[in-house]
Design a protein that fits this description.
The structure is a homodimer.
Chain A: H1 6-15, E1 31-33, E2 40-49, H2 60-77, E3 81-91, H3 97-114, E4 117-125, E5 131-140, E6 156-160, H4 165-173, H5 183-189, E7 205-209, H6 213-224, E8 227-231, H7 239-244, H8 247-252, E9 258-263, H9 268-278, E10 282-289, E11 294-298
Parallel strand pairs in A: 3-4, 8-11
Antiparallel strand pairs in A: 2-5, 3-5, 6-9, 6-10, 7-9, 8-10
């Protein structure tokens, strides 16, 4: 029998060490696992394409981690506990082995950080840019998944962490703004999904901010049939983002992977307690009112801020 | 609020009609579903890249169907019943709406044919060729998943359907061989996954033939620690493949998506009965013996057939 071709060699060398229970050592046609009894499954899939979602010279260590974290952020937005993932990797035929080594080493770090393991996938060449996709699977108590609908007039609007660092990081990596300590670039390369925050029963609606705060807030408004007002002066910016002084870009730029939460007034104390327990900063940035689904951003004098675009489309 | 960007428009127009229960209308951050109680889940993921897995002018109707069927074949190889799938679609920014229309229409046909629905996914542009990935989820009774290990010396080797049509179809589409009735091209575009064949408890090992009969049989031998002999004269070829008279290509060319089965002699009658019930042709093409994992292909006079390569690597 001839030597195994490189596809199988790649899988054995770089991906088998990442494979968890249920992956069957990546040696069968599919993965098999028993879902946690009595729990609903939560599934998210995302693709990342070189030149669209990441820069051609982004370090391969961070590519797989970012892909996982983007999906984990979707799971966090549903209040789910992650279990495992499948991965497809399409790379140019001349991709060097150290690329795979670094890519897999990054995945290993995040598997440990988030308690997940590789279940299966596919590795192939492409005549185009590196193209990755991941499907991440998690679980949630039945009926407890957080949803985008459910925000009600009178609820307040909250966001975790800081907004705009990822979008500014992209500008920094393109050499368009300064990033002396590399903080912004790091935030672009490695978002911080809010896995572990337990806000079921506290929030009335939730989603993750991935395509721009204003645009994503618009999706939540549409799903909930409410209008939102965001006070720009309350949106939490990192010291580095304040230094960059581009607040409009920050609220429309995308790549935040923070959670946007609608919170009934009576639940605000519980929200603060849970965020305190989890060590997740959270800030009230606005409120929901009845009206046609829309997002209005107000400046510190209460005037509407005109925005050229609400957010980011990957198409 | 500005008009929704094209990404969301695409999802609403072409993918939401495909979305099943659990997809939450593709309007939330992830899909949520309750797995069938007491069943193990089976998960398979595959990527398909233009110029590698399909031809640039392959009809978009068949692209999504082929991607689903490639994954469904993996589920069939595990003896699983399919439930649903997630999909990532990366296409050039100037892709016309009729491409999406045809792509989605093809998916709708196969959703109906195989009893599955779209759960979620991602649509994005790419500066490269069309790149697709799908993760298909199914279920199986606990411990009943078919596996590649388990073949034993003395078992016979069986294959469903016919071998080589897909590989010949690729040659036909490239204009390298004749295909007067379009049968071979159709087999390349639309493989026929053997979902519904119930051979748990009958076969000792199973896998699907996707990268070439000889190579895939080698994987089964490795997993089972046995040697296999294939009698080339017994390998089932379609009338069109016999006409092409390229048996070596047929057994190494890939794209078959038939099942390779190891069957203990005492189970052969049950195998034939089940294949009869399911309407799936099945042929005994060889046998397993003890020995170093290897595949020997014999011609009609019992001589070893020298093969340039055993199969196909997508890298």
């Amino acid at each position: 029998m001839p030597t195994l071709p490189p596809e199988f060699d790649l899988i054995a060398r770089y991906f088998r060490p990442l494979a968890g229970e249920g992956s069957l050592g990546l040696a069968d046609d599919a993965a098999v696992f028993m879902p946690p009894p009595g729990r609903e499954l939560v599934i998210s899939a995302d693709a990342m394409v070189g030149g669209v979602h990441f820069l051609p010279d982004d370090p391969p260590e961070t590519l797989g981690r970012k892909l996982l974290r983007v999906n984990l952020s979707d799971l966090a937005a549903m209040g789910a506990t992650p279990l495992g993932y499948v991965l497809t990797v399409s790379v140019p035929a001349d991709t060097a082995s150290h690329w795979f080594e670094a890519f897999a080493a990054g995945l290993a770090l995040d598997q440990a950080a988030f308690g997940i393991a590789l279940l299966g996938g596919d590795t192939t060449r492409t005549p185009g840019p590196v193209s990755l996709s991941a499907t991440v699977i998690g679980h949630v108590a039945p009926g407890q998944a957080l949803r985008r609908h459910g925000a009600r007039p009178g609820d307040s609007l909250w966001v975790t962490g800081t907004i705009g660092d990822g979008a500014l990081g992209l500008l920094a990596l393109r050499g368009e703004i300064a990033d002396p300590d590399g903080f912004l670039a790091a935030r672009y390369h490695l978002p911080r999904p809010r896995i572990g925050l337990r806000v079921a029963g506290i929030v009335s609606a939730a989603m993750d901010v991935s395509d721009g705060l204003v645009q994503d807030c618009g999706h939540l408004c549409q799903a909930s049939d409410v209008a939102a007002t965001i006070e720009l002066g309350r949106v939490p910016f990192s010291a580095q983002a304040r230094q960059a002084a581009m607040p409009h870009l920050c609220v429309t730029g995308g790549d935040d992977y923070e959670l946007l939460l609608a919170v009934p007034p009576a639940q605000e104390a519980r929200l603060l307690a849970e965020c305190g327990r989890a060590g997740v900063p959270v800030t009230r940035i606005g409120a929901f009112a009845s009206g046609h689904p829309s997002v209005t951003v107000l400046d510190e004098s209460g005037r509407t801020v005109p925005l050229e675009k609400a957010g980011w489309s990957h198409f």
